[in-house]
Amino acid sequence: MKQPHVSLLKHAVRVTATCAMLLTLTAMAPVQERPGAGKVEVSREPPDTGPVIEVLKPTEGAVPTVPMEVTIRFTPRSAPVDMATLQVAVVKFITIDITDRVRPYVSPAGIQIPDAKLPSGKHIVRISVGDASGGMSNKQMTVSIP
Predict the structure, then answer these.
(1) 41: which residues sit within 8 A by CB, 6+ positions away?
(2) Cβ(37)–Cβ(144) under 8 Å?
(3) pLDDT band for position 3 (50/70/90)?
(4) So what's the architecture of 4-145 in CATH?
Protein backbone atom coordinates (compact mmCIF):
# COMPACT_ATOMS: atom_id res chain seq x y z
CA MET A 1 0.00 0.00 0.00
CA LYS A 2 1.40 3.40 -0.97
CA GLN A 3 2.00 5.96 1.72
CA PRO A 4 -0.02 9.15 1.00
CA HIS A 5 3.00 11.41 1.60
CA VAL A 6 5.15 9.36 -0.80
CA SER A 7 2.49 9.66 -3.48
CA LEU A 8 2.27 13.42 -2.91
CA LEU A 9 6.06 13.77 -3.09
CA LYS A 10 6.18 11.77 -6.34
CA HIS A 11 3.45 14.00 -7.73
CA ALA A 12 5.38 17.14 -6.69
CA VAL A 13 8.54 15.86 -8.38
CA ARG A 14 6.57 15.01 -11.52
CA VAL A 15 4.97 18.48 -11.56
CA THR A 16 8.33 20.17 -11.03
CA ALA A 17 9.98 18.13 -13.78
CA THR A 18 7.32 18.89 -16.38
CA CYS A 19 6.97 22.67 -15.96
CA ALA A 20 8.29 24.33 -19.12
CA MET A 21 8.19 28.04 -18.33
CA LEU A 22 7.11 30.55 -15.69
CA LEU A 23 3.40 30.17 -15.99
CA THR A 24 3.12 26.81 -17.76
CA LEU A 25 2.43 24.80 -14.67
CA THR A 26 0.40 21.79 -13.79
CA ALA A 27 -0.51 22.72 -10.26
CA MET A 28 -0.91 20.28 -7.43
CA ALA A 29 -4.55 20.58 -6.39
CA PRO A 30 -5.08 24.19 -7.49
CA VAL A 31 -7.49 26.26 -5.46
CA GLN A 32 -10.60 26.60 -7.58
CA GLU A 33 -12.31 29.94 -7.93
CA ARG A 34 -16.02 30.21 -8.70
CA PRO A 35 -16.74 29.28 -12.35
CA GLY A 36 -16.05 32.07 -14.80
CA ALA A 37 -14.12 34.15 -12.25
CA GLY A 38 -10.56 35.09 -12.98
CA LYS A 39 -8.33 37.92 -11.87
CA VAL A 40 -4.79 39.13 -11.37
CA GLU A 41 -3.54 40.53 -8.06
CA VAL A 42 -0.09 42.02 -7.44
CA SER A 43 1.46 42.72 -4.04
CA ARG A 44 4.79 43.99 -2.75
CA GLU A 45 6.63 42.57 0.24
CA PRO A 46 8.50 45.30 2.17
CA PRO A 47 11.23 46.28 2.53
CA ASP A 48 12.11 46.90 -1.08
CA THR A 49 15.68 48.19 -1.10
CA GLY A 50 16.68 46.63 -4.42
CA PRO A 51 15.39 47.20 -7.94
CA VAL A 52 11.77 48.19 -8.48
CA ILE A 53 9.79 45.17 -9.71
CA GLU A 54 6.83 46.29 -11.78
CA VAL A 55 4.26 43.89 -13.27
CA LEU A 56 3.15 45.50 -16.54
CA LYS A 57 1.24 42.53 -17.98
CA PRO A 58 -1.08 41.01 -17.05
CA THR A 59 -2.57 44.17 -15.60
CA GLU A 60 -3.85 44.12 -12.04
CA GLY A 61 -7.56 43.45 -11.82
CA ALA A 62 -7.71 42.08 -15.36
CA VAL A 63 -9.45 38.84 -16.21
CA PRO A 64 -6.61 36.78 -17.69
CA THR A 65 -6.89 34.79 -20.89
CA VAL A 66 -4.68 31.87 -21.83
CA PRO A 67 -2.16 32.12 -23.36
CA MET A 68 -1.22 35.42 -21.76
CA GLU A 69 1.64 37.84 -22.14
CA VAL A 70 3.75 38.34 -19.01
CA THR A 71 5.87 41.48 -18.80
CA ILE A 72 7.76 42.35 -15.62
CA ARG A 73 10.15 45.31 -15.51
CA PHE A 74 13.19 45.66 -13.22
CA THR A 75 14.23 49.27 -12.62
CA PRO A 76 17.49 49.87 -10.71
CA ARG A 77 17.29 52.22 -7.72
CA SER A 78 20.86 52.93 -6.65
CA ALA A 79 22.91 50.12 -8.23
CA PRO A 80 22.66 47.87 -11.30
CA VAL A 81 20.36 44.83 -11.18
CA ASP A 82 22.25 41.68 -10.13
CA MET A 83 20.72 38.89 -12.23
CA ALA A 84 22.48 36.23 -10.12
CA THR A 85 20.05 37.07 -7.29
CA LEU A 86 16.89 36.47 -9.33
CA GLN A 87 14.49 33.93 -7.87
CA VAL A 88 11.09 33.02 -9.29
CA ALA A 89 8.91 30.58 -7.37
CA VAL A 90 5.38 29.24 -7.50
CA VAL A 91 3.87 29.08 -4.03
CA LYS A 92 1.59 26.08 -3.53
CA PHE A 93 1.47 23.38 -0.87
CA ILE A 94 5.23 23.41 -1.41
CA THR A 95 7.21 26.23 -3.03
CA ILE A 96 8.49 25.31 -6.49
CA ASP A 97 11.57 27.20 -7.72
CA ILE A 98 11.10 27.88 -11.44
CA THR A 99 13.98 30.34 -11.86
CA ASP A 100 15.90 28.13 -14.30
CA ARG A 101 12.79 27.63 -16.44
CA VAL A 102 12.24 31.39 -16.64
CA ARG A 103 15.87 32.33 -17.47
CA PRO A 104 15.36 32.21 -21.27
CA TYR A 105 12.85 35.04 -20.86
CA VAL A 106 14.95 37.17 -18.47
CA SER A 107 17.17 40.19 -19.07
CA PRO A 108 18.45 42.92 -16.72
CA ALA A 109 15.42 44.93 -17.86
CA GLY A 110 12.96 42.26 -16.61
CA ILE A 111 11.00 39.19 -17.67
CA GLN A 112 9.14 38.95 -21.00
CA ILE A 113 7.08 35.84 -21.76
CA PRO A 114 5.00 36.28 -24.92
CA ASP A 115 2.58 33.36 -24.48
CA ALA A 116 2.47 31.89 -20.98
CA LYS A 117 -0.01 29.07 -20.57
CA LEU A 118 -1.62 28.29 -17.22
CA PRO A 119 -4.10 25.65 -16.18
CA SER A 120 -7.28 26.81 -14.47
CA GLY A 121 -7.00 27.63 -10.78
CA LYS A 122 -5.15 30.04 -8.52
CA HIS A 123 -1.38 30.49 -9.03
CA ILE A 124 0.85 32.54 -6.72
CA VAL A 125 4.20 33.58 -8.24
CA ARG A 126 6.88 35.22 -6.07
CA ILE A 127 9.70 37.18 -7.75
CA SER A 128 12.83 38.34 -5.89
CA VAL A 129 15.77 40.25 -7.35
CA GLY A 130 18.67 42.21 -5.90
CA ASP A 131 21.18 44.80 -6.96
CA ALA A 132 24.97 45.12 -6.93
CA SER A 133 24.92 46.95 -3.56
CA GLY A 134 23.03 44.12 -1.80
CA GLY A 135 19.52 45.58 -1.85
CA MET A 136 16.66 43.11 -2.39
CA SER A 137 13.10 43.49 -3.65
CA ASN A 138 10.19 41.05 -3.70
CA LYS A 139 6.91 41.02 -5.58
CA GLN A 140 4.12 38.47 -5.41
CA MET A 141 1.46 38.12 -8.05
CA THR A 142 -1.64 35.98 -7.89
CA VAL A 143 -3.27 34.88 -11.13
CA SER A 144 -6.67 33.19 -11.07
CA ILE A 145 -7.56 31.42 -14.29
CA PRO A 146 -11.24 30.53 -14.76
Answers:
(1) 60, 61, 141, 142, 143, 144
(2) yes
(3) low
(4) Sandwich (2.60)
